[in-house]
Design goal:
It contains 5 helices and no strands. The protein has helices spanning 2-8, 19-44, 52-73, 80-104, 109-135. Helix 2 runs antiparallel to helix 3 (52-73), helix 2 packs antiparallel against helix 5 and helix 4 (80-104) runs antiparallel to helix 5 (109-135).
Length: 136
C-alpha cells in the first residue's frame, strides 16, 4: 500500500499510522478520481441537461475528497480538530453525491461506480473521524 509506505517513513510518525486514517486517505483519492470521471462521463451523455446536479455534486465531491486526502496525508504540526471537520465535510459531500449518483445508477454504469466510491469514502471518513476524536 503506497499510502502506508509513504506515511510510515515520516519522521514525526512515531508508530505505525492508524489503519482507519490510511484507508480514509486511499478512499478520498479514489473517490476524487471516480467523481471527476463520472462528471466527465455525465457531460458526454445525451441527456446532459438532466445531469447538471449530478455533475455539480461530482465536481464538489471530487474537490473536497482531494483536499481531505491531502490534509490527512500531512502529519507535521497537524490540527486534529480541523482535520476532523474537513473529513466531516468530505463525508457530507460523499453522501450527497452518492445519493444523486445512485438515482442514475441503473441507467449509467459510471454513476453506479461513483456511488459505490462515495459510499466507501463516506464510511472511511466517518471511521477516521471517530479515531481522531478518540485520540484527542
Amino acid at each position: 500500500m503506497h499510502v502506508q509506505d509513504m506515511i510510515a517513513t515520516h519522521p514525526q510518525t512515531a508508530e505505525r499510522p492508524n489503519d482507519a486514517l490510511l484507508h480514509c486517505i486511499e478512499h478520498c483519492y479514489a473517490c476524487a478520481q471516480a467523481c471527476t470521471s463520472c462528471a466527465d462521463a455525465c457531460l458526454a451523455e445525451e441527456r446532459v441537461a438532466e445531469l447538471r446536479q449530478c455533475i455539480r455534486l461530482n465536481l464538489d465531491c471530487a474537490d473536497l475528497c482531494a483536499a481531505a486526502g491531502r490534509m490527512a496525508t500531512r502529519h507535521t504540526a497537524g490540527n486534529p480538530h480541523l482535520l476532523a471537520e474537513a473529513l466531516n465535510a468530505c463525508a457530507l459531500a460523499c453522501r450527497l453525491c452518492g445519493d444523486e449518483c445512485a438515482r442514475h445508477a441503473e441507467a449509467m454504469a459510471h454513476c453506479r461506480i461513483c456511488a459505490d466510491a462515495c459510499n466507501r469514502c463516506e464510511e472511511s471518513c466517518s471511521a477516521a473521524i471517530r479515531v481522531i476524536r478518540n485520540l484527542h
